[in-house]
Amino acid sequence: MKKILCVLLAAALLCAAACALAQTPATFALGVVITQEGRSPSPIDYTVRLAAQDGAPMPAGQVGGTYDVTLNGPGEVHFPAITYDHVGTYTYTVSQLKGDDKHCEYDPSVYTLTVYVLNKADFSGFDITAVFTDSEGGPKPDNNLFGNIYTPDPENGSITPTGVADHWPKYLAGSAVLFAVSGVLATRLRRREETLEDVVLTEDDEHDAP
Predict the structure, then answer these.
(1) 186 assigned to some structural domain
(2) Between 20 and 30 A from 186 (CA), which of 17, 146, 161, 169?
(3) pLDDT of the residue at 23
């Protein structure tokens, strides 16, 4: 009986191993959302770094266990897909590199990304679950990770959604007032000249009279 059980156990292990070898690798492409408060005159480059912990799989082209992607302006940026061919728990850190725009306050947050790779029920492949946690270990429910703040020079004003600095309306209003005053002065001057012309003509008529 023991022999039979051993044979059955060995057969089950071999079957499981064969199924594992036949499994199709799974891929996961990390996406990160970057936001920006305040409008800049031109889009700012934001660079996000993915760093592997304990030899976790990385996208092709990684350098020294890290991979950087850059996004021109706020929005969502994606890393190349990572391939997983073994069950396991894989850990990464996700951070934003500090840029060189002196008016931008770059979000210094660092997140832990944990990727869980599990067998499908029929051993046909893998199920992947990715979870973000912040520096305090709290869960991050989505991939909206980095919020940056752009503050322009006070003398330049901030840029409105139409692409115009917010101090321009003041300048335009001042210009309008100047134009209005100039128009009034020009009208008064013209009327004065017309009045003087009428006086001269009247005097000439009196001199010409018999």
Answers:
(1) yes
(2) 169
(3) 77
The three-class DSSP label of residue 44 is coil
Selected residue with higher pLDDT from 145 and 183? 145
Q: List the beta strands (DSSP E) in the chain.
A: 26-28, 31-37, 45-53, 66-72, 75-78, 82-84, 88-97, 104-105, 110-119, 126-133, 139-140, 144-150
What is the per-residue pLDDT across 65-81, written as a single tens digit (0 to 9) for each? 999 999 999 999 999 99
Residue 70 placed within a domain:
yes
Taking residue 90's Cβ as centre, other Cβ atoms within 10 Å add up to 22
- CATH number for 138: 2.60.40.3050
Query: Which residue carries 């869960």 as its tokens?
Result: 139
* Listed residue (50, 45, 53, 55) closest to 31, CA to CA: 50
Using one digit for the tens of pLDDT, what is the confidence trace for 12-23? Answer: 444 444 444 457
How many CB atoms are closer than 10 A to CB 15? 11
CA triplet 132, 135, 137: central angle to 5 degrees? 65
